[in-house]
Amino acid sequence: MDNEFQVGRVPARHVDDGESLLVVDDLRTHFEVPAGSVRAVDGVSFTLARGRTLGVVGESGSGKTVLSRSIMGLNTSANAITTGSVMYAGDEMVGKSSKEKKLLWGAEMAMVFQDPMTSLNPVVTIGRQLTEHVRYHLDMGRKEANEVAVALLKSVHIPEAESRLNNYPHQMSGGMRQRVCIAIALACGPRMLFADEPTTALDVTVQHQILNLLAEQQSDRAMAMILVTHDLGVVAGRTDEIMVMYAGKAVEKAPTAELFSQLRHPYTQGLLWSIPKVTQPKHTRLNAIPGRPPNLISPPTGCKFAPRCAYAQDLCRTDEPQLRSIDSPDHVFACHFPVGTPEGEAAFQSNIDAGHPPALAAVGKLRATEEVSA
After folding, report:
1. Is the pTM for the entire model greater than 0.85?
2. Sheet holding 224-229, edge to edge
3. Under a CB-based contact definition with an 8 Å cutoff, are residues 142 and 120 in contact?
4. Are 339 and 329 in contact (CB under 8 A)?
5. Does 285 reside within a domain?
6. Residues 55, 61, 63, 66, CA torsion sign
7. CA–CA separation, 229 vs 235, rounded Å?
8. What is the CATH number for 54?
9. DSSP 3-state of 20
10. Domain with 86 in it
């Protein structure tokens, strides 16, 4: 695409490569419901530079999607309360009016939503859905906007792009619909892209294609990207940093290679063990983290992961751990007895000796992992 199609008409402070494009500080989003206050995002902080990718990982209900929507300002319901700070290109997002945010949505920051079948309008053609915000943000005529739409479809590797403009979403496969969603998100050349589980419900081959496409488009456009997923395997080779979320909080954050080589939080370890291995025999039982996520209206005291943790001690049930580091300031975690440390090993062994169910389950997973590796 030509350079004129790469940027919107929204004035924003210039941000050089490597400079922090996004700075999130103590971001909180609570939803007021009759039963109480749901603390969906509860004090998350991080920075992201242009051209870099952050993977946000966690189980369903950990706050990943709400975090992305809170940064963009998409939680517009009356019962949603967002506090903290989101600085985008030096401009505060929290507290902006809907009119101000609409100028940024699509032009400066965009989202690829989880389910393309529900995020695309079923009774509107693909061409119209591709061109409507291009015409709004870039002030183009219909003919010029259609030319941009065709170029966008070609850029996301959709064949017969010209004829696809007249298609409706139901006339396309799941993978093609997801490519259309990516094209719509990229239409105005945003500098910040949120990909919210972009490979959900797609087969493995199409998942690989979609992830490669996102990486290709990000590289071509020097975008910052937040890749949201529940699967550590998805972010392993596609992100610069990983932030693991649990119960609305960041429990571990590190450069990608370091997180996989020296993970510290037991929850991160559980997520890693949950990844299916191709070397396992057929019908092998999947490794799941025992227990259930906590109630976000009335979470337990202390560490929110303690009831499911193989390392948990009395201290964990009374005092909530704060993010800290051991060796590298870029690798932070919230755990009193971190994995791979003498105190962590002692806590793990004491729970095994006491017959603590999560610890005994972890022993079985360790043995299974060692057998697969062998």
Report:
1. yes
2. 109-112, 192-196, 224-229, 53-57, 241-246, 249-255, 332-333
3. no
4. no
5. no
6. positive
7. 8
8. 3.40.50.300
9. strand
10. 3-246
- Cβ pair 41, 27 in contact under 8 A: yes
10-residue averages of pLDDT along the chain (374 residues): 35 54 96 94 95 94 94 91 95 92 89 82 91 82 88 87 90 87 86 87 76 84 90 88 96 96 95 80 79 92 95 96 93 96 95 91 71 49
Residue located via tokens 């290679």: 257
Query: Do 362 and 291 meet the contact criterion of CB atoms below 8 Å apart?
Result: no
Half-sphere exposure of 64 (CA within 13 A, CB side): 26
Our measurement of the distance from residue 261's CA atom to the centroid of its chain's CA atoms, rounded to an integer in Å, reads 21
The residues, ordered by sequence, that sit 6+ positions from 196 with a Cβ below 8 Å of its Cβ are 64, 65, 68, 111, 112, 113, 114, 228
Q: Are residues 194 and 232 part of one domain? A: yes
Judge if 240 and 254 occupy the same domain.
no
Q: Residue 58, Cβ neighbours under 10 Å: how many? A: 27
The DSSP element (H or E) to which 30 belongs, if any, is strand 20-33
195 and 95 in a single domain? The answer is yes
List strand residue ranges (DSSP E) for 89-167, in order.
91-92, 109-112
**In this structure, are 214 and 238 located in the same domain?**
yes
CA angle 145/149/150 to nearest 5° reads 120
Q: State whether 172 and 257 are in the same domain.
A: no
The domain total for the chain is: 2
Establish if 158 belongs to a structural domain.
yes
Are 201 and 345 members of one domain?
Answer: no
Distance CA 305, CA 362 (A): 15
Whether 216 and 311 share a structural domain = no
Residue-level pLDDT at 16? 55
